[in-house]
Amino acid sequence: MTSNTLFKLCRSGYIALVLLLTGWFIQQGLNGTYSLAFSLIWIVPLLFPLKGVIQGNPYTYAWASFILCLYLLHGLTLVYITETAIIFAVIESVLIMALLVGFPFYARKRGRELGLGLKKKSKDNG
């Protein structure tokens, strides 16, 4: 799979996740389940890597997985405790798990294409 294909898949999956969770949390805020301020607090961390994900920055793809872990915890908890929103919780969890696999693969593949990465220590430096 090429880095361009991975980029398109990861970017579209991330945008779908942002739209899905924004809709969910705003709906929860409007119907009174959560306060609107609490709902906005849940959305903000998801927006931190937005610019880098859209631009295809491999460094952003590498660290954005840490933020996705928070939302995976939310999705899996919702799968366990909910009876009414089980479809939403499963979709959220599966989408995030796919991104948790895709993001590091894209970061690695694109980083190698750009020549990024950790430099090896030379033997003559001791």
UniProtKB/TrEMBL annotation:
The chain crosses the membrane at residues 12-30, 36-54, 61-81, 87-107. Keywords: Membrane, Transmembrane, Transmembrane helix. InterPro entries: DUF2069_membrane (IPR018643). The keyword Lyase does not apply. The keyword Transmembrane helix applies. This is DUF2069 domain-containing protein.
